[in-house]
Design a protein that fits this description.
The protein is α/β, with parallel strands linked by helices. The chain has six helices and four strands; from the N terminus they run βαβαββαααα. It has one domain: Collagenase (Catalytic Domain). The chain has helices at residues 14-24, 36-47, 75-85, 89-104, 115-126, 133-138; strands at residues 2-6, 29-34, 55-59, 69-74. Strands 1-2-4-3 form a four-stranded mixed sheet, with helices on both faces.
Length: 139
């Protein structure tokens, strides 16, 4: 189940986000769409990095009936990237959601051997989305 808190007026591809979420977990996932200031504070508080980022994932310890975790997306940066790469902001948010969900599922592109990149690329193709994050940084 996907719970969404959208602090922006940006429309989302809710049905697609729900479809992606339910395809990979039966656990609850929280999606928060926030401004740059909020995500910068979270990035500083939880990662010690004092700058805004595009997406953060916060997994919850795995035990029966626990949610999978939270995905936080910076709508301002998503808008900038969507414009830069020539696609809709809804698509960029969906790409960031996929990236965040993979992190919640245990993937980590910073230390794996390309598994997260491969999985992300497969999902992007499956859902007919434009190139994203790891994929476009490798091009």
């Amino acid at each position: 189940m996907l719970l969404i808190d959208n602090e922006s007026n940006i429309p989302l591809h809710v049905s697609l986000l729900e479809q992606i979420c339910s395809a990979y977990t039966i656990k609850e996932v929280e999606l928060l769409i926030v401004d740059a200031t909020s995500i910068k504070e979270l990035n500083h508080d939880y990662r010690g990095i004092d700058k805004a980022t595009d997406v953060l994932s916060f997994p919850v310890e795995n035990f029966p009936h626990s949610p999978l975790g939270s995905i936080v997306i910076n709508y301002a940066l998503a808008g900038e990237k969507a414009e830069e790469f020539g696609h809709a902001i809804e698509e960029e948010i969906t790409l960031l959601f996929i990236h965040g969900l993979l992190h919640l599922l245990g993937y980590d592109h910073e230390c794996d051997h390309g598994e997260m990149r491969d999985k992300e690329e497969a999902l992007i193709k499956h859902y007919n989305l434009p190139s994203s994050l790891i994929v476009r940084t490798q091009e």
